[in-house]
Design a protein that fits this description.
It is built from twelve helices and ten strands. The chain has about 375 residues and is of the alpha+beta class. Strands 2-1-5-4-3 form a five-stranded antiparallel β-sheet, sandwiched between helices. Strands 7-6-10-9-8 form a five-stranded antiparallel β-sheet, sandwiched between helices. A hairpin with a 2-residue loop joins strand 4 and strand 5. Helix 2 runs antiparallel to helix 8. It is elongated, with a radius of gyration of 35 Å.
């Protein structure tokens, strides 16, 4: 590894490379960014490039080699090269693909470093759901661990470790396979700063911890997305069903409305701050006087004693439209005391209209039957 900074302390022992000294290079910078081929990967989308870079630096500062993070389908979520050896071998094997198209190069089987990193190591780790440790084509070793979210493998992450070969015969084989100059390989191998076993084991532990952290973050992201989708679905369902909801918080003495509750009262969602006294006053003003006292008494009993209620009555909206509503409430007890009151409100205008028309038809039929001199069968 070509490093301008010596990683040995005065006693001669090896120390970790400080994070500020690690020279990270986005995977394949000279031939383009491979994450551009990642269209909708869950890891890249959920975590983002910056965080993935920060996570990888956590263990690369111990090794100074290379790392890649993959989606379950093999798309690159991120990649690092910090050593001259890894950069040299990767670029040389990329040149073997004889194409300018990265997608073609990745599937050619001739990109030897990619084959070690993905096909031989990370792909196996994803398939087996377990760590995989192999000897890579570039002369080092490769270690990969799966990334799990909600019990499913969503990707894998790995790093290279170990020392480049110094045996002349092995170096000549690598030079021949990668079409590299033998002298360049010797120089990079000599410049490589070896890491002791304890440092490699520590890096492996950090890799496992980072994989768990990424999995946990993906779970949180998915849960947040599911919650947003659920809320949107609930809003649409309430709008279609003409059903609104509300919650009274007894501790804070505040009322919260859903969007459809605003609409039923003839207001725009959020027109008045949910929980404001003005909102409650406006809604009560929609009720006829005889129903107002009835609903206020029922609400008070629900708050004080937890007594549920259901009522149907007409209202006049803010715009002056006449409607029929059904409202119901139920208390939530905490320590024997009412903590919250949950309720719903339904626009039943169409139902009431249909009932009135049915009653009218029934009364008309009854009148005809009672007053006709002819026989009538129903």
């Amino acid at each position: 590894m070509s490093e301008s900074n010596d990683s040995r302390n005065k006693s001669g022992s090896i120390k970790p490379i400080p994070n500020t000294e690690v020279r990270t290079e986005s995977h394949g910078r000279r031939y383009g960014d491979l994450t551009d081929l990642n269209r909708d990967g869950i890891i890249l989308k959920s975590i983002g490039r910056e965080r993935l870079e920060g996570f990888a630096n956590d263990y690369l500062e111990l090794l100074g080699t290379s790392s890649a993070i993959y989606e379950a389908n093999g798309d690159y979520a991120f990649g690092f090269f910090t050593s001259g050896w890894c950069r040299m071998m990767d670029l040389a094997s990329r040149n073997l693909c004889d194409t300018s198209d990265n997608a073609e190069a990745l599937s050619s089987g001739r990109w030897l470093c990619h084959e070690s990193c993905w096909t031989d190591c990370s792909k196996r780790s994803i398939a087996e759901g377990a760590p995989v440790d192999i000897k890579c084509n570039g002369g080092l070793r490769m270690y990969a661990v799966p990334i799990l979210a909600h019990g499913n493998v969503v990707g894998a992450m790995n790093f290279g470790y170990g020392d480049p070969p110094t045996d002349p015969e092995q170096l000549r084989k690598l030079a021949n396979t990668y079409h590299l100059d033998y002298g360049d390989l010797v120089r990079e191998a000599d410049a490589y700063d070896p890491r002791p076993p304890f440092m490699i084991e520590l890096a492996k532990k950090r890799l496992h911890a980072t994989a768990r952290l990424i999995g946990s973050m993906i779970e949180t992201k998915k849960a947040e997305e599911a919650l947003r989708e659920s809320r949107q679905l609930l809003k649409k369902t309430q709008q279609i069903a003409k059903t609104g909801g509300w919650v009274w918080d007894e501790e804070f003495k505040s009322m919260t409305w859903t969007d459809e509750t605003y609409r039923i009262h003839g207001m725009k969602p959020g027109e008045l701050s949910s929980g404001s006294p003005e909102l409650i006053q406006r809604s009560i003003a929609c009720y006829d006087e005889k129903d107002r006292s009835k609903i206020e008494s029922a609400f008070r009993r629900c708050v004080e004693k937890g007594t549920p209620y259901t009522y149907e009555f007409p209202i006049t909206t803010i715009q002056g439209q006449r409607k029929w509503i059904q409202t119901s409430a139920k208390a939530l007890l905490k320590g024997g005391m009412v903590s919250k009151v949950y309720g719903y409100i339904v626009d039943i205008t169409e139902r009431r209209k249909a009932e009135e028309e049915l009653n009218h038809s029934y009364r008309l039929m009854k009148y005809i039957i009672e007053h006709t001199r002819s026989a009538v069968a129903v």
